[in-house]
Design brief:
It contains two helices and 22 strands. It is mainly beta. A hairpin with a 7-residue loop joins strand 4 and strand 5.
Length: 397
């Protein structure tokens, strides 16, 4: 058995072809092993709020390590363990899946993984323009998709399309209930794709026809999120508390337009929940949207990947592993988002947030981010008006 590996010059997992990587990929007898890591240290907090909060802190926001294996370009295996957040987080299996990729343009997957749903959700956490996703993206994907989800999925993808259909259950890990049942789908098309111009449009949906419940308890669901950044200091200002539900679904539109170094993207979602009220049903409607723009100041701009129908991080056009163009890769972004969890008798709050972010990659596996956010939460349990600053150091490969 001949074992071969290389450092500089070998392709890094999740990096576009032709981009050198620092972390080696190991190949022997048709089997490829690619180490995986997404390790983040978040430092920051809320210097100004209506309600007293602990201020500035630090935590390991995500500590995920493992490997992905490809066997003869037919089978993919993923084994990744989640050690965070730290301190105080519960360790659990982040990904344990098997995929058949031997049929061109098709992928069949089963296990614990992230089903295809929504543009921002399908960007790997280390590839997102902001430290955390928009609240509406987080809330909707956590209904029946998102990370650590028990699921089966069939997908088809090409240069101008991505289609996926999934059957999902609960999430993996301590304290989780796996008896939820749902269907998830995503349809994406690329009507324009030229050297300088790119358009992406899509539609995602999910429907939970059996809401999770413990033995002897009513089926319930909670819709909530932190204020688009979290160092373990804040409550979930957006929070409906537990709602007795018969079923729940979410549907959304996604769009993106890229022109040279500039990328615009946005999504809008509607959540429809049927609340059980004695012998009747009360229909609840929650909603939200976001719009953001990113500009690559130094480096090769974000590229679209058909497998996820989402955008990767910027890379170095000069095939350098460190200090691209002598400065490292630089990207600036701005975002506005809204999320409303107020409907009928339920008031989980209404959030509006403005964010600005600067990302710097001194090395291909090292990202340093600085984000400012201003937000307001009306209604709900914690009406709030806050300014927040968060920095992040990330190693990802």
């Amino acid at each position: 058995m001949g074992l071969s590996y290389a450092g500089v010059g070998i392709l890094l997992f999740n990096a576009p072809a032709g981009v050198a990587g620092t972390i080696p990929t190991f190949t022997f007898n048709g089997i490829t092993i690619k180490p995986y890591a997404t390790d983040q240290l978040d430092i920051g907090g809320f210097p100004q709020t209506n309600q007293p909060v602990p201020g500035v802190g630090a935590r390991g926001g995500r500590i995920r390590n493992g490997a992905r294996v490809t066997i003869h370009n037919q089978i993919e295996l993923g084994g990744i363990w989640d050690f965070g957040p730290a301190p105080g987080g519960q360790m659990r299996l982040f990904e344990g899946q098997i995929s058949y990729i031997g049929l061109r343009h098709f992928v069949f997957t089963a296990g614990i993984f992230k089903p295809s749903f929504g543009l921002e959700s399908m960007q790997a956490q280390g590839d997102t323009a902001f430290i955390e996703r928009s609240s509406i993206s987080t809330i909707t994907r956590n209904i029946a998709a998102g990370i650590e989800r028990q699921a089966v999925q069939i997908e088809a993808h090409g240069k101008k399309y991505h289609l996926a259909l999934s059957g999902t259950a609960g999430t993996a890990g301590p304290g989780e209930n796996g008896n939820q049942r749902a269907l998830v789908f995503r349809l994406v098309g690329v009507p324009v794709r030229t050297r300088d111009l790119f358009f992406h449009v899509g539609f995602s949906g999910e429907w939970v026809f059996r809401v999770a419940h413990s033995p002897g308890q009513q089926p319930t669901e909670t819709f909530s999120d932190y204020p688009e950044m979290n160092v373990g200091l804040t409550s979930k200002y957006l929070n409906t508390g537990k709602i007795n539900l018969r079923d729940v679904g979410a549907f959304g539109l996604e769009a993106a337009a890229a022109w040279k170094r500039l990328l615009f993207q946005g999504e809008a979602y509607e959540i429809v929940a049927n609340k059980a009220v004695e012998n009747t049903t009360q229909k609840l409607h929650f909603s939200g949207w976001y719009a953001q723009a990113s500009y690559t100041l130094v480096g090769k701009p974000r590229s679209w990947k058909s497998r996820t129908a989402a955008f990767s991080s910027p890379t170095c056009a000069k095939n350098q592993n460190s200090m691209c163009n002598g400065t490292g890769i630089l990207e600036a972004s701005a975002r506005y988002s809204e999320a409303s969890l107020k409907s009928a008798s339920v008031d989980g709050g209404q959030q509006k947030a403005w964010s600005a972010n600067l990302n710097w990659w001194p090395m291909d596996i090292l990202k340093i981010a600085l984000q400012y956010e201003y937000g307001t939460i009306q209604g709900g349990r914690f009406p709030e008006n806050f300014h927040a600053v968060l920095s992040m150091i990330q190693i990802k490969f």
